[in-house]
Amino acid sequence: MTDPSPPELAARLRGSGYRLTPQRELILRAVQRLSHATPDEVLAEVRRESSAVNLSTVYRTLEVLEELGLIRHAHLSDRAPTYHSATGQDHFHVVCRNCGKVTSVDPEVAAEFVARLRAEHGFVPDLGHLAVFGACVDCEDAATPHHHD
Questions:
Q1: What fold is seen in the domain 89-149?
Q2: Residue ranges of the domains in the chain?
Q3: At 35, is the pLDDT very low, low, confident or very high (cuts 50, 70, 90)?
Q4: Rounded CA gap, 38 and 19, in Å?
Q5: Which of 137, 135, 104, 111 minimizes the C-alpha distance to 125?
Q6: pLDDT attached to residue 27
Q7: Contacts of 105 (CB under 8 A, 6+ apart)
Q8: Rounded to whole angstroms, how far apart are CA atoms 127 and 114?
Q9: HSE (CB half, 13 Å, CA atoms) of 51?
């Protein structure tokens, strides 16, 4: 699925009782450009084009865009959630607790986990909200003492 054009976006918003304002369009485009961005990061990006947007507008618009299925959020830290386009490839996230690196992972990697949750617990997870925390290989290697013979 590709990102909606302005006329498609306007039609989706109207179909749900909203209208396409310049602010909503700017905020959606910012999320699409930034990929995984907090509301503050979205605001900073939008303010490059318009100073007429404030943080409460960003939060309200993100909520509307998520309700319409255009964006998703994930909790990738103890900070504010990050938002990304829902039209890209499905993925979940692995987050390094040491350096903060976020990697998007294909859900196929978790297929066995998903199958077991369904079979053993009657549960189907929403992997788009999944974040697995740990250490990336670079940080793990840096933390491991190297022995020189």
A1: Dna Ligase; domain 1 (3.30.1490)
A2: 1-87, 89-149
A3: confident
A4: 24
A5: 111
A6: 94
A7: 91, 92, 93, 94
A8: 9
A9: 0
What would the two tokens of residue 90 be? Answer: 């499905």
Q: Is 46 exposed, middle or buried (0-12, 13-18, 19+ CB in 10 A)?
A: buried
CA 81 to CA 101: how far, in whole Å? 15
Contacting residues for 19 by C-beta, under 8 A, at least 6 apart = 10, 13
pLDDT in tens, 96-113: 999 988 888 999 999 999
Q: What is the largest CA-CA distance in the chain?
A: 70
CATH of region 1-87: 1.10.10.10
pLDDT tens column, 76-92: 877 788 898 887 678 88
- N-term to C-term CA, the chain: 54
Q: Residue holding tokens 């189907």?
A: 124
